[in-house]
Automatic annotation (TrEMBL):
Cited InterPro entries: FT20
Name the record gives this protein: Intraflagellar transport 20
GO BP, sorted A to Z: cilium assembly; protein localization to cilium
Gene that produces this protein: IFT20
Species whose genome carries this gene: Oryctolagus cuniculus (Rabbit)
UniProt subcellular location: Cell projection, Cilium
Source lineage: Eukaryota, Metazoa, Chordata, Craniata, Vertebrata
Regions that span the bilayer: none
Keywords associated with the record: Cell projection, Coiled coil
Residue ranges that the Swiss-Prot or TrEMBL entry lists as coiled coil: 79-110
Recorded GO CC terms: centrosome; ciliary basal body; ciliary base; cytoplasm; intraciliary transport particle; neuron projection; non-motile cilium
A Pfam family matched in the record: IFT20
PANTHER family reported in the protein's UniProt record: INTRAFLAGELLAR TRANSPORT PROTEIN 20 HOMOLOG
Amino acid sequence: MAKDILGEAGLHFDELNKLRVLDPEVTQQTIELKEECKDFVDKIGQFQKIVGGLIELVDQLAKEAESEKMKAIGARNLLKSIAKQREAQQQQLQALIAEKKMQLERNELKTFL
């Protein structure tokens, strides 16, 4: 009966018979909540580490992809340049062939006359 009166007044006895302001059940729930919060914070910390590692990996892959992209662009430009050089060389050779044909025709005309 004395415990009921103290309980109504907001005072409780714990397992060691010490007088407490909080109900032992509320105290236990508070301790459990504190432990769950600590576990949650630990898990969030682990998650942040994992995400940080993932971000670093993605950044590294992005840099490598950008490097390969630049190499591919350089190779494509070089290929275009080589193609243009070949076209110019082909035109020069065709002009030289036309010139040689004309010389040959002139020489044949001279020898014929």
